[in-house]
Design brief:
Distance between the termini: 46 Å
Strand content: 25-35%
Order of helices and strands: EEEHEEHH
Structural class: alpha+beta
Number of helices: 3
Length: 102
């Protein structure tokens, strides 16, 4: 019996700055997890990962991360991915600084 496919998003790190980014449905890279394309088909997920891997001049380390549908777009399922959405943890800058004003 085969396992049911868990929805995914494609994530990577931006080559120049190192920021965590997510592949959107219109082939752009977003800093925001909720803007990622939620992929619910395994074959489509593999195609999207291949596309991401071809973006060597923009991103590095692309992989599929488990996600779930949320009210504002995809949400991370695992702690690691939730942690990655908040940015570096060593000092307050980037995404963390932006969240301080919310």
């Amino acid at each position: 019996m085969s396992r049911r496919f868990t929805p995914k998003v494609v994530t990577a790190n931006r080559l120049r700055e190192g920021d965590v980014v997510y592949l959107t449905a219109n082939d752009l890279w977003s800093l925001h997890h909720h803007e990622a394309e939620l992929i619910e088909d395994e074959a489509h997920a593999q195609l999207r990962l291949l596309f991401a891997a071809s973006q060597k001049n923009l991103v590095v380390g692309a992989y599929l991360a488990d996600a779930k549908a949320g009210p504002n777009g995809p949400e991370p399922v695992h702690f690691r991915e939730g942690f990655r959405t908040r940015g570096p943890s060593n000092y307050n800058h980037g995404k963390q600084a932006d969240l301080a004003h919310v």
